[in-house]
Amino acid sequence: MVAPNFDLEEVDITFLQKSQQFLRSHVAATPVKPFFLFHSTQAVHLPSFPGRQFKGKTNSGPHGDFIFELDYVVGELLKTLDELGIADDTLVMFSSDNGPEVPTVYHMRHDHAHDGARPWRGMKRDNWEGGHRVPLLVRWPGHVSSGTTSDQITSLTDVMATVAEVVDADIPTNAAEDSFSMLPALLQLDGGKQIRPYILQQGFGGSRFLAIRNGKWKLLAHQASGGNNYANSQLLQEYQLHDDAPDAPGQLYNLEDDPGETHNLYLQHPDVVGKLQTMLEQSITSGRSTTLRDTENN
Prior knowledge:
CATH superfamily of the largest domain: Alkaline Phosphatase, subunit A
Number of helices: 7
Strand content: 5-15%
Oligomer: single chain
Structural class: alpha+beta
CATH topology of the largest domain: Alkaline Phosphatase, subunit A
Largest sheet: 4 strands, antiparallel
Order of helices and strands: HHEHHEHHEEEEH
CATH class of the largest domain: Alpha Beta
Number of domains: 2
Distance between the termini: 41 Å
Strand order of the largest sheet: 3-4-5-6
């Protein structure tokens, strides 16, 4: 069900205008007050419906044009921060909620030699890296050095704790149970020490399809992808990889040596499996992966 005036092709420009309006109004009315703006685009989620002014802008079909439109929207938002003179005081984070969609991966690979998931295995819904590993770009002039990268493992759940530390706000114990502040990493004050002890993932198939990563090791506490059915999908059959441990109840990968998750080491490293399984079960039992916070607002 869609509202009568909801234009699938032009909605991203409407969203852009609304966000720009919010920024201008906020700076005009309360210039010294912090703000939080969450801007969610339709681009580049299927269906690929680029706006009128973006159709044919690339040689990569409607989805390529959609990516072009997303780039335009982000650029216009950054320009607005510059025009308002608040770019240096604004922390900008850009990311995605999951890897590329199945039809998108298939058609972009076959029709345009473009692969939004490569070099990772899998895509949206899968518990492999292609389903979860997405870009995280940060801009904060004067605070985050341009052109730098970080080896920290992180999740979008970490946005809340990170932003809370930026504005010096306490988080109650019963909130953000899986959120770690990445501010030390952004400011390069982490000293190379991992902030997160581990990271949790869940495949599209539900709570039975959980995964945990600790350092270079990643355990999928299940067989197969945890999401897409590669054997029964005409689009996915050509991407099905050989399972070199078909009798193992789960999957263990060394992402340092095997980032493509091609060699299942589950049966070869029972000690690692046991350690990660224990950590996973502890998180399930406690309902959180962070330690309890001691704040004044509990």
